[in-house]
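Example record

Each entry pairs one chain with its bound ligand, zinc ion.
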Amino acid sequence: MFEVSFIPAFKDNYIWLLQHDRRAFVVDPGDAAPVIARLEADGLALAGILITHHHADHQGGVEALIRRWPVPVFAPAAESITGCSHPLSGGECIDVLGTPVQVLAVPGHTLGHVAYIAGDRLFCGDTLFGAGCGRLFEGTPAQMAESLAVIAALPPATQVHCAHEYTEANLRFALAVEPDNPAIRERVARVAGLRAAGRSSVPSTLAEELATNPFLRCREPGVIAAAKRQGAAGDSPVAVFSAIRGWRNGF
Ligand code: ZN
Ligand code: FE
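Structure tokens for the complex follow.
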């Protein structure tokens, strides 16, 4: 199994670095410069690139990286991705540095968005965040709710490697949705401590997300009640999700 760490990029992006035997894959290299700097500093050769979706902050570095290392680029078949050599639509199993990695279709943030699962590690791009989820730029609430349900059904020990450090702001919203949820209060304090110390709040565990992330809690009475106060059209999980997501957009 490969080792996992991250390369910070832009203001709040995480480019995940998978390494084994001096070879590396990167997930969502939005910027090439910090990736090249890290690979050089650590004496690693790039062996492949995994892309979750087409947004520039996730694929902007691909062109420069494959010019230097002509490596395979695994990416959503349905999206326009620079240098894509292995188009994916979900359901595939690919080899990453000798480890089998499952590909999941998780449409919602974008229509072709995929996530990658390696053992207990999930790389989910902009689908699930710490205490939040991605905006619906292309998909419908029903599509995103279904994608999040697929993720929610993974083992609770799954480590959630999302692509942005958004947890603190997301927790402020989570607390507005469920002010009486002690798990959210505990996480607010813990994440504040991590961030004050300059540390990352990710990866989290799926168990932690199930307990604190309003977008995975659309069947909880407190979340349903909050969604109804926001004008949810009924208490089905999709109606609740849609109302909570709409509320978050203007929060
Ligand atoms: Zn995005
Ligand atoms: Fe992004």
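The longest helix spans residues 182-196.
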